[in-house]
Amino acid sequence: MRRPLAAHFIITVLLVATAQAATQLESIGRTSDDLPLAWAPWHGKTIAITDGGVRLVDWLFDPGDRAIDLLATSFHEVRLVAFGDSLHIDQPGDLDGYLVTEDAYGAIRVRSRGPDWHLASNRIAGAAWFVDLGDEDITVYPAPGELPAASTVGMATSVLPHDQAVSDGDRAAVARRFGGQTLIQVFDLSDPLAPSGGDLVTHDEPAWIALRGHTLVVAGSLLRTYDVSDPDDPELLFELGPAGEYSQPSFRDDGILAVWRNGDIRLVDASDPADLRPGATLPAVLPLGEEPWPLLLEDDRLVTRGQHGLHGYELAAGHYVLLDAGVGWWRPEGSLLAIDGRYAYLQGDRRYVLDLHGPAGRIEVLGAVPSPPPGSGAFLSVTDGHLIYADGSGDVVIEDVSEPLLPAETAVIDLPSQVREVSFDAPFLSLVRTGIVDLFDLSNPAFPQNAGFIDAVQHPTQSVVHGHLLFILDHVNGTDDSIHISDLSIPGPPPIVAVHDLAGDAWLHRVIQMTCRGSDLLAQVVRTQGGDVETYTLRLDVSDPADPVVEVFDQLHYFWGDWSQPPVELVGLHVTVEVNNLYLNDYQGDPVTMPILDILQLPSRIRAMTTEGNQLLTHYDRSLVRCTVSSSPPVAAPVTVPIAPTVQAVPNPFNPRTTFAFEMSRAGEARAEVHDLRGRRVRTLVAELPAGPARLTWNGAADDGGALPSGTYLVRVVTPETVLTTRCALIR
Q1: Which H or E run contains 560?
Q2: Distance from C-alpha of 312 to C-alpha of 70, rounded to nearest angstrom
Q3: First-to-last CA distance in the chain?
C-alpha cells in the first residue's frame, strides 16, 4: 500500500530555556501538508507548486526526505505546464520559463530562462508555439528560434479566477460563468500571427470544458461534444446522459476522458467524439459537498484535488479501470486530538488518521474517514482500541478502531436532550445535560453501562472525571459558582459527598476551567465587580473527598494559558497554551512555586494538543508536531525506525486469485478479512499456520461463493501478534 507524503517543509522549533531542567523537550516528528497549488507530470514524476516553492516528487507519494526542492520562491494563483525538459510557471503579470535537466546520476538541475524565453506547448503550422491564456486576452508566443513576434487576441470579457481556458493544437477555448449561464468562446490559432475569435456558445448552467484537437467537450447537466473546426459555427456532435452534474473533464491522448459526475470519477471513451461510450466509475474518496478542482489525466495516472487534499489514481494496463493509488497531500484541519499508541486522530469536519511511527520518525497522514463535525460538548478520546466522540447531534458514539481506516460503530449513547459537555477518565464517562449529569462505565467500551445520574445540581455546566472522583461545576446566574464532589467508589447511585461554594463577597466568582493534578482539583476563577476583573487559582486538596482543603493563589498566566485550551500533563510537566507558545512547567504540587522549564514556540496559533505517556502532539495551522520528554539532553544520532511487519498481495492486480503473504511470529490462527471500498466485509479466510512465512489465497469470491466485481479491496490480516493491512485490485 502506498503511503501519503508525510512532510513538505521543515518546521523550525524554537526551545527557549528559562531554567535548568532535568528534562529536555525534543521534537522528533512533524508533518505538514503545504497543499499544492498546481501540479503536472514530468518524466514519471510529479512537479508540484506549493506555498513554499516548487518540488519534484516520485508520483504523489515520495517520502518528504526524498522530495527535491527545485525552487524556493513563493507562488500565488499559478498555472503550471511541464513537458520535455521544460517547465513553465505562469503567474498574473509574469511568464517564467525554466529548464529542468537530470544527469546520468539522477541529479536534477534547474536553470531560469527569463521572461523573454517561452516554452513550446502547441505545434501549429509545423512550428512550436506557446499559448498563454491570460486574464483579458490570449497571447501566442513563438518558441525560441522560430518566429520573432508575438500576437494577441482579446476576450469578449475579462476572465475571472473561476473561469476556464484551454488550448490544444490550433484551437483554444475560454468558458466564463456568471448569472447561472456559461459563455464559451472558441479561438482559431491556425495563423498564430493573426488569431481570431469565434462566436459565443451559450449554456444555461455552469459548465466545465476540455479540448482535444478540434473536439470541444462541455460538461454540464449533460456531457456534450462539439466539432470546432469552424469556430464561428460549432457543431454539436453528441450528448451523453442520464442527466446529472458533469464537471471537470480531462482528455488523454488516446481519447479517454475523465470526468466528475455526481461526486464520482467516470471514464468515458471519447475516441469517437460523435459516439461517447461510458467506461468505469470510481467512487471518489475526496469529500463531497465541495467544488471539485481540476482533474489531470496523463498516461496511466489521474490526479484530482479537493479542498482538503490531493488524491491519485492509476489506470490498470489495458483496462478502463481506476485503481485507487492513495492520498498524496492532505490538509489536516481540526480542533480535537487523541492518541492511542501508534495512532493519533485529528477531528474536524472529517477524522484524520495519523501514524506516529512513520518513516524516519515522521508523522504520516494515512487518510481520512467520514465523521460528523464536532458539535455541542465536542470531545475526542480513545481507550482500549475504541474511539469515543460526541457527534453534532449530541449523541456519544463509540467505534472500534483496531483498524483505524475501517472504524466500526459498536455503541451509541443516545440521550433525550443535548449533551453540553463531556469528560472522560477511564473507565468513567460524564455527560453534562441541562439540569442533569449522566455517568457511564466504559470498562468494556463496546458495552457502555449506565452508572447513574446526578440531578442534585441546579445548573451543571462543566464536569471533570479524575479516578474515582467526579467534579461538577454549578453555574447559577447572578450568584457565585459552586463545585460539587461525587465519590464514584461508593456503591449505588453517585452520591454528592461535598460542595464548595466560592467566596460569598461583593464580587461575582466564575470558574473558567478545571483540571486535576494528583489529589488536587485546580480551578481558574475570574471574579468581577462592575468593570473590575481579577483572576486567581483555586486548589481543592481532595485526599479526603468529603472534607476538601481549600487554598487560593494569585493568578499565574503561564499556569492556565488561553482559556480555550485546558492544561495537559506530560510526565510530571504542566503544559499550557498561549496563542502559538507552549509553556512547560515543572509541577511540584504548588502552582506558586512551579518553575518554567521551556517555552516551545510554534509558527502559528495552536489549535489542539493532546498527550500520552512522554509524548505531546500539537496541531497548528495545517501542521502537526510531536515532541517527547527525555531525561537527558537529546543526542544527535540517526533515527532508527523498526521495520514494521507487512502483508503483500501477489499478484496485484489479479484475476482470478491472489495470495496474501506475511510473517507469523508464532504459530496460531491467522484471519484475512476482505472489505470493499464501502467498508463492507465480503470474504473471511481463516487458517491455523506455523511460525514463519505464511500465505492465504483468495479466489476473488465472496463468502457465499459468488464472484465479486472488479474493483479495489481492502485486506485486513489478523495474526496472534498484530494486525496488517493492504489493498489489492481485482480485474475481470
Answers
A1: helix 557-560
A2: 22
A3: 21
Per DSSP (E only), the strands in 213-291 are 215-219, 223-227, 235-240, 246-251, 256-261, 264-269, 277-283
What is the length of the chain? 732
Q: What pLDDT is recorded for position 564?
A: 67
**What are the backbone angles phi and psi of residue 282, rounded to the nearest 5°?**
-120, 120
Each residue of 230-244: pLDDT tens digit?
Answer: 888 889 999 988 766
Q: How far is CA 607 from CA 332, 351, 438, 582, in A?
A: 12, 15, 29, 12
| Cα-Cα-Cα-Cα dihedral sign, residues 544, 567, 632, 643 | positive
Residue-wise pLDDT for 441-492, tens only, equals 999 998 999 999 998 888 999 999 999 999 999 998 888 999 999 999 888 8
The CA-based diameter of the chain, rounded to the nearest angstrom, is 94
Report which secondary-structure segment, H or E, holds 557: helix 557-560
* pTM exceeds 0.85, yes or no: no
What does the alpha-carbon distance between residue 395 and residue 407 come to, in Å, rounded to a whole number?
Answer: 17
- Look-up of cell digits 513537458: 83
Backbone angles phi, psi at 591, to 5 degrees: -60, -25
Interior angle at CA 727, CA 723 and CA 732, nearest 5: 140
Strand, helix or coil for residue 360: helix
Q: Provide CB contacts within 8 A for 114, sequence distance 6+.
A: 96, 97
H helix intervals, 312-371: none
Q: How far apart are CA 169 and CA 535, in angstroms?
A: 71
At 591, list the grid cell: 502552582
For the segment 583-592, the average pLDDT, to the nearest whole number, is 71
More confident residue, 307 or 671: 671
**Residue 384 three-state SS:** coil
Q: What is the pLDDT of residue 31?
A: 65
C-alpha cell at 466: 479524575
Place of cell 489525466: 297
Residue 378 to residue 453: CA distance in whole angstroms: 20
Cβ contacts of 541-546, under 8 Å, gap ≥ 24: 542/469, 542/485, 543/519, 545/469, 545/485, 545/487, 545/497, 545/498, 546/485, 546/487, 546/497, 546/498
> How are the residues of the chain apportioned to helix, strand and coil, as percentages rounded to the nearest 5?
0, 55, 45
Which sign does the torsion angle of CA 316, 320, 325, 328 carry?
Answer: positive
More confident residue, 234 or 630: 234
% of residues, the chain, pLDDT over 90: 17
